C-alpha cells in the first residue's frame, strides 16, 4: 500500500512500522473502551 515515491525517498521502515503499530494499538484500546461503555462497564 506504499507508493514508490515513498519507498525511493529512503524512509526508515522500522519507524513507519512502529507508528503503524502504535496507531493499531491505540485504535484497539479505543474500540475496547467503547465496547465496554456500550455494555455498561466502568
UniProtKB/TrEMBL annotation:
Keywords: Membrane, Transmembrane, Transmembrane helix. The chain crosses the membrane at residues 18-35. This is Uncharacterized protein. It comes from Actinoplanes friuliensis DSM 7358.
Amino acid at each position: 500500500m506504499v507508493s514508490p515515491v515513498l519507498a525511493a525517498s529512503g524512509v526508515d521502515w522500522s519507524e513507519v512500522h512502529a507508528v503503524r503499530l502504535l496507531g493499531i494499538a491505540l485504535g484497539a484500546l479505543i474500540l475496547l473502551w467503547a465496547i465496554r461503555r456500550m455494555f455498561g462497564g466502568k
